[in-house]
């Protein structure tokens, strides 16, 4: 009898073309489906809580899959980890209700984007941070971030120019901290548009560099024009931290 399993997955996205399955390319979804097909003997669709971009990492991506297996949850986890590559790990496998859906049931997500502007390059973190060429004004970025919190239309921060669905999202918390050269941007919201977090970071860094005033962010939001926002920050600094249900 088939059951719905909830999977919690960690991965280093450096060498992958994102989460979503793509023919002929290595993706996180593709690797998971390949191992489950080996376990079950037939194709198993793995549905993630979101679609991380190429090069983006995750500490606790959530996905679900429906299949039949005589193995206990821990045995399924161990089997998958035995055959998955070293940069993908299933942290937990649990039986969920038949109505559980990793994407549609999610009510919130936390992302963290990490930059570094210290004097000595972080050798061991180099795949997971974006190294800045100059030091941004953290207080200015914090002021700008205040304009981005709440329920708003984030069309100016969407990387998909053909987006037909609503671009209104709720971002209820943005924290920007600096310690030992590391600058971390933490975002929590109900959901995020394609490239949205990376564009937000790129825009906030423009504020930090003095290229725009913090209040300018408010005008960019109102304009609903991607061309007015800052650049899309590189993918390696972004990590999905948690999905809320």
Compact description:
By secondary structure, the protein is α+β, with helices and mostly antiparallel strands. The longest helix has 13 residues, at 28-40.
Walk me through the structure.
With 245 residues, the chain is α+β, with helices and mostly antiparallel strands. The protein folds into 2 domains: 3-96, 2-Layer Sandwich (Alpha-Beta Plaits), CATH 3.30.70.580; 108-244, Pseudouridine synthase I, catalytic domain, C-terminal subdomain (Alpha-Beta Plaits, 2-Layer Sandwich). It is 22% helix and 30% strand. It is built from 5 helices and 10 strands. Strands 1, 2, 3, 4, 5, 6, 7, 8, 9 and 10 form a 10-stranded mixed β-sheet that branches. A hairpin with an 8-residue loop joins strand 2 and strand 3. The longest helix has 13 residues, at 28-40. The radius of gyration is 19 Å and the shape is globular. The mean pLDDT is 96.
